[in-house]
Amino acid sequence: MTILNIAKMTQQLKMEVSCSKNIHIGLFWLVSLLALIVPVASVNYPSALYYVAVGLVVLGLCAVIVRTDPQPLSKLEKVMIFTWLFYPFYTAIDFWLRTGWIWTQFQEPSRFILVLPIYLMVRRFGLSQNALKWGVFLGAIIAGVWAFYQKYEMGNDFRAHGGTSGLKAAFGDISILLGVMSVALFQPHWSEDKRWWLIVLLALSFGLFASLASGTKGGWISVPILCWVMVSLARHPTYTKRFIVLAVMVTGAVSVWYFSPFIQWRVGNIPLAVMTYLETGQVTDGSASIRLALWHAATLVFIDNPLFGVGPSNFDVAKLPYIQAGLLPEVVGQLDSAHSQFFDTLHESGIFGPVMVFSIYGAFIVFCRQYLAQNKALATSGLLLAVGFMDFGLVEMIWDINNAGVFFTVMMVLIAGQLSYEQKMRQASH
């Protein structure tokens, strides 16, 4: 009887292990498929991006009940997760104490709560890096093809944008990131076989073209920093190589400007507009000088409210005294944001605003840097994602744009989760 019971228990255990293994494999491939769709849909079909993000969140919540070995969080992971949770917590408290609840304003910070189950799932079950890699590649190609089609059909002066989104900034910014992230994710291939450079240069050129076709100047200012980071992909990165790449980039930028009337039109008035505002305080264009005026307004509000700012949705009221006093041009009163992630958080939350936002970027950057030796391709793609969005946020409310905000948060947790998963696999093999 005892032997029979032992046999039954052994058989039951084998069935449970087999079932658990099948669930793990199923989650791995389902998450990988969804991870492929995220970059593919990010610029041309944001609706699909949102559905995929919701699907990943639901999978993450369901994965909580699946048994695995205990996997404690590292200290850096705890810090990173803390930055994700503190931002929405602080915003919610701010609503409660000062402005009352505003769901539309909570949408941006709430994403960092929603993506936490995705991160915890990926760090436990992993995903296919190949799926992420080819998704980024296809996203860059599709963005470039769509931008070319719009230029061909609408004319050279038309600013390209996403297929179901009229927001040109998100289209241009994400496109350029897809291009440079393709270079990073294909690094294991092109470092061993130069023929893979054809694939890499194809994705990079299509992503860059889409960004140029969008006329999104905020994305272009990130190119020098992105080039600097990309040199880390070299087998022996040096400062000499970084400066050579920067010199090549500057030469290319000047050539594009010289031969493209569209680019000349987009950037030609910037120096004059900036100088005019600095000298006279007058807004003479709808891009550079108006941004300077809005940043000036945000700075004045911050100086008078340095610790906690004036709260969400209070910028309109807060800047009125400065307009009435003649410190700001009247046109500033017509816009309700500072047109910059940095300056918007500065006037909303005081010094805590930029600290909260840049601590999210900073923790993710430090997290990726510690895995450069183990997985240079994926870690560098994470660095490019963070550095790119930091730069975009200097001149745009980049997280406030839906598809850009969803793309950043979901890609961040997919990359961080996979790096953590691989670290766990390495430790288990020793």
Descriptive overview:
The structure is a single chain. By secondary structure, this protein is an all-alpha fold. It folds into two domains: 1-268 and 351-430, no CATH class; 270-349, no CATH class. 75% of the residues lie in helices and 0% in strands. The chain is built from 20 helices and no strands. It has helices at 2-41, 46-63, 75-99, 103-114, 116-125, 129-154, 168-185, 187-190, 197-214, 217-220, 223-230, 239-259, 261-267, 270-280, 288-304, 315-324, 341-349, 352-369, 376-395, 402-429. It is globular and about 90 Å long. It starts with a helix and ends with a helix.
Summarize this, please?
It contains 20 helices and no strands. The protein is an all-alpha fold.
- Measured between the Cα atoms of the first and last residue, the distance is 40 Å
- Radius of gyration in whole Å, from Cα? 24 Å
Low-confidence parts: none
Shape: globular
Give the total of domains. Answer: 2
The percentage of residues in β strands lies in under 5%
Supply the key terms.
430 residues, mainly alpha, 2 domains, 20 helices
Write the SSE topology.
Layout: H1 2-41, H2 46-63, H3 75-99, H4 103-114, H5 116-125, H6 129-154, H7 168-185, H8 187-190, H9 197-214, H10 217-220, H11 223-230, H12 239-259, H13 261-267, H14 270-280, H15 288-304, H16 315-324, H17 341-349, H18 352-369, H19 376-395, H20 402-429
